[in-house]
Structures are given as C-alpha cells and as structure tokens.
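Much of what follows relies on a compact textual record of a protein's fold. With that in mind, consider the following protein and its fold in token form.
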Amino acid sequence: MAKKKIKEIIEETAAEFLTENGLELYHVEFIKEGKDWFLRVYIDRISAEEEEYVSTDDCEKVSRFLSDALDQTDPIEQNYYLEVSSPGMDRPLLTPRHYEKYAGRPVEVKLYKGVDGRKQFEGILVGLIDGCVIIRDEKDKEWKFPLDQVSKTSLAVVF
C-alpha cells in the first residue's frame, strides 16, 4: 500500500475527531524497521500558542480512537504497531502550513551545502515565501534559502 494513501486514510479517519479535541494531524509515517512495520501518527494542538502542548492523555485518546477505527475498516494489509505522539518541542517543519503556523518563532535551518562557510543558521522564522525559507538572525539580517537547499528546518528550543 502506498505511503501517501495511508496518510490520506489517517487524515480522513481522524480529521473530525482531532478537530473536536482541539488537535490536528501534524505528520504520518508508515515505515518498516527490521521485520516490523510502524504507523507513527504525530498530532499537535490547533493553536500555535507556545503554552499549549499535546499531553500523554491526548496521545492515548487519539491512539484508542485510531486503533478502534482502523480495526473496523482494516485498510492496511500489513501487521503494524500504532504509535501516536507529539512532534516534540524541536519539531521539524515539513509543510507550507507548518511554516505559516510557526512564523515568528525561533528556528534552526540546516543546509545541504554551506552558505558563507556555514551549514546551520538560527533565527526568527519569517516564513516560506516563493519557495524560500526566510529567517531573520540576531543581528536583524535576513537570510533566504531555497527550499531545495534546506535539509531540515526545525523549531529551536529556547530556555
């Protein structure tokens, strides 16, 4: 079964339940590790407020819902382990929606190829504009990186 189709199945199955609980689907992975398959579902709060995090109770509630719903329809041929979790404080930004939601927050950008002798940059996320990740560093300098040159953008954990 195609990974994209599994993601669509999870989106369709969970959308209403997640919304009713103030949550949204952040990311879905269906991967094989050794001999076992894992369906990893990452959930987040709909609100981008920094104080609102996904709790273990949220994960448990979504896991029970998805487990029951997927058992009824049985859309995945392989046996698999279902894991539901938060994407974490240092979550990777994977979609245009993520870049939009977290604009104004501190991020770390890692590049495939160095710019000005560096492969890692930190700053405040301006956004994903015209296919480029744009951040503003601590010296108020704006950096613009084409998305195809970015290996990873993630929220920076600031204490």
In short: The chain has a mean pLDDT of 92. DSSP finds three helices and eight strands in the chain.
